[in-house]
Design brief:
The chain is an alpha/beta fold. It is 49% helix and 16% strand.
Length: 263
């Protein structure tokens, strides 16, 4: 297993349960997703992918902002199409790496999440936010439609809500994000860690293989038509039932006892 490696921009930790915590650590620049930050995230996610005993990832941040997205000053300083293409391709690789991890990724949102920062939060499988957190796809204010942030956004919230965020750039607060399905839970800031811990605990008590198969299936079937989605889901459930954990779960149900899973 690759051991956790922290950098100046990203703090990386792993506990005995296999729960990784990746903490963005560039508060002076509102944890902007520059090339160096994206590289650090990519390397950390690759380490998680190689950890066969990993159970979950918590994506957190230091400072007032969760993540303000790409640094517009850097972007303005590089008026070059190839440079922009490379930056957005690098960002997309990070987003896809989150989806492809076999474990759930939980965004711990303590502050503002804007543009590609909102994208990063939305691309996580789950999100817990402080009640003071705010969200926006704000690029349109600067003449830049948040095209890449729109990808997870329209897969998280109803289309008209997503379009409103994208064409106005206006902020929504945490209760609104909860009501629209952009986040799972909203709590007072001083209870944020406890709420994240509660969600993580619920995940790690489940069989890893079932969670991994389920996460992969959710993202695959979402992109399919109804017939193909049911075909894929049925096959996934059949394969899942052949796993020892599912067999033990079925026996435990029939015998009216708690499953004895070997994680």
């Amino acid at each position: 297993m690759t051991h956790p490696t922290s950098t100046d921009l990203l703090h990386v930790a792993r506990d005995a349960r296999g729960v990784w915590t990746l903490t963005l650590n560039d508060p002076g620049r509102f944890n902007a997703l520059g090339s160096d930050m994206l590289s650090a995230l990519q390397q950390a996610l690759a380490s998680v992918a190689q950890d066969e005993s990993a159970r979950a990832v918590v994506l957190a941040a230091h400072g007032k902002a969760f993540c303000a997205g790409h640094n517009l000053k850097d972007m303005a300083a590089h008026p070059d199409l190839a440079w922009y293409q490379a930056l957005f391709a690098q960002c997309s690789k990070v987003m896809l790496a989150i989806v492809r991890l076999p474990v759930p990724v939980i965004a711990r949102v303590q502050g503002m999440a804007t543009a590609a920062g909102c994208q990063l939060m939305a691309q996580c499988d789950l999100a817990v936010a402080a009640d003071s957190a705010t969200f926006a796809t704000s690029g349109i204010h600067y003449g830049l439609f948040c095209a890449t942030p729109s990808v997870p956004l329209v897969r998280n919230v109803p289309l008209k809500r997503a379009v409103e965020m994208l064409v106005t750039g206006d902020f929504i607060d945490a209760p609104t994000a909860l009501a629209q399905g952009l986040v799972n839970r909203v709590v007072p800031a001083d209870l944020l860690d406890a709420e994240v811990a509660k969600l993580v605990a619920s995940i790690v008590e489940k069989p890893r293989v079932a969670v991994a198969m389920g996460k992969a299936l959710v993202y695959q079937q979402r992109e399919l038509g109804l017939d193909a989605a049911y075909q894929l889901a049925g096959q996934a459930m059949a394969v899942n039932m052949m796993d020892a954990a599912a067999q033990e779960g079925a026996r435990a149900f029939s015998e009216k006892r708690q499953p004895d899973w070997k994680h």
